[in-house]
Amino acid sequence: MSNRQIFRALSSNTRIKILKILALKEMHLTGVAKEVGISKPVASRHIKILEDVGLIEKRIIGNVHILKAKTKELEKVLEPYVISSTIKISKNDKLFDALKQVPGIEVKKMGKHGYIKSIDEEKGYYIYEVDGKLPNKPIDEYIITKSTIIDLKKIISVKKKKINIKIKEE
């Protein structure tokens, strides 16, 4: 699928809303239509466009079609727009120290651990991947032993549960 076709599919605010919904959870067409506030036939046409360009996956269970966004496909489309930097460091330097060299990245220490405070002045919570894999160490403990690619990703807050805590009356 060409980027032109994908961007054409993304040119509709309705389709973007549908993708946002389906990125959070799998849903049936009826649920999507209800949540977006459109009829089922209109939702179906929008979903077909997104499905044709590979941004939506359909899982069939009996006669029910469950829809889900294929966010990895969207990441591939946006890859050419990611700003890339190259830096040189010494072997066994920590990632924290390497990130200090990258323009636009602000790292901070809080207590004994370091973290990424902002990228291009956009504050938030960020994670990192090393050669496409999530490491299990904070950036100030991760030691770089070979040339590698680091991907920084912003964590977007998505409400998954709401817990109402009440105090017991004694």
Describe the structure.
With 170 residues, the protein is an alpha+beta fold. The protein has two domains: 3-79, Orthogonal Bundle (Arc Repressor Mutant, subunit A); 83-155, no CATH class. Helix content is 32%, strand content 26%. It is built from six helices and ten strands; from the N terminus they run ααβααββαβαββββββ. It has helices at residues 3-9, 13-24, 29-36, 40-52, 71-78, 95-100, and strands at residues 27-28, 56-61, 64-69, 93-94, 105-110, 113-119, 122-123, 125-130, 143-144, 150-155. The strands form four sheets. It has a three-stranded antiparallel β-sheet. Strands 5-6-7 form a three-stranded antiparallel β-sheet. Strands 4-9 form a two-stranded antiparallel sheet. A hairpin with a 2-residue loop joins strand 6 and strand 7. The longest helix is centred in the N-terminal third of the chain and has 13 residues, at 40-52. It is extended, with a radius of gyration of 21 Å. The N and C termini lie far apart (63 Å).
